[in-house]
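User: Before I run my own analysis I want an independent prediction to cross-check against. Here's the chain; please return only the structure tokens and, at the end, one sentence I can use as a sanity check.
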Amino acid sequence: MTVSIKIPWSNWYANELHTIWFPDKWNVCVSKMADAPKLKKQKIYEAIKNPIGSQKLEEIAKGKDTVGILVDDLSRPTPAYAVLPYIINELKKCNIKPYNISIIISLGAHRPMTKQEIIKKVGERVASTIQVLNHNPFSPDLVYIGKSKIGSPISINRKFAESDFKIAIGSILPHYCAGFGGGAKSIIPGIGGIDTLEANHSLYFCEENGEKHIICSVGNPDNPLRLDMEDIAKKVGLDFIINVVINSKLEIAGVFAGDQVKAHRIGCEFAKKVYHTKKIAKADVVIINAFPKDTEYCQSSNAFNVIGDVSSDEILKGKSSTIIMTTAASEGPGFHYLSGPGTKLFKYHDYTFPPESLKDFDAWIYSPNLFEAEIRQFYKDKPKPLYNDWNNVLRNLILKYGDYAKVAIYPLASIQILC
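Assistant: Structure tokens:
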């Protein structure tokens, strides 16, 4: 006999529940985030109409001719299609013509989006009436506007930089570098040049006595890397943000609009409450599901966000414990110009998967959609064990643990925060 558990799977693609199973004598525990209800449309619009720390959208838009709107790509679950029609309608009321509005996909160092992907993200009605452009961090047409306070060179997408009214749409999700997504992150890395991205991302570490130490952490937005992002966003002239907090169904649970710092920080406090997750103590097996950041293997390491700064001995039973990252990896291995194989900031996954704090534990990957040959490029030596069939995962777990094991499952690990 077995006990079956359904985990969310394949965001933006299948959007389904995926079944994994265990012996019925095992102690299988699922820890879900605190969660929040879906916000009604009227509440979404009210939040945008009553911004935090800034003038109202229509007041800023008055007298403006051109508008640039930043939207993230499919590696993030932001439902831009749910807020864009309202924003565009408000801009039209301010006599801004649709042909003077540009939506720019703030890709950072990710690959360009296809037409079909753009329609998924912004909605067909918007995609058919408003110009949508992919950012290119290598474009020779970027505009250089100087340096940040700490010396990061600032090269920015020209189309956005020259827009009269600058808006950014994003989601406030746990992030290992920036503390949380959203806010100024739409600017950097969103629409920065590759030199700007390299300079900013290098702030993830500080060097002391010849050794690099990580100084950023999940859930802490007041860190050097994000503060540099915010300084750059201010210099670029970001006028207005619309950031959402999503629930476990990827519905909008909160909207925080207005000033890129003030609105963002209030949103972060709400996000902490929504993503709050109780620890399951002393597990033999910890399963971290990468959903909703499970579009690519190279994004799936976000599943470790759930662990954050929690000590391994709080959640893992001992050295014999196993961590299994599960991911749909719907697009395969993925691509990243900044930290992918062959790039300046690339680090072999031998050293980063799992993170340093968990390196003494076995780490496995379960993904029916990945080939070992695809992910070999991320490793200096042999990749971590990759399983395409859950039966093989279970067979090896039973060989390791026998008749009994305690299993901890975090179904939306990339946005959950253990407390």
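Sanity check: The mean pLDDT is 95.
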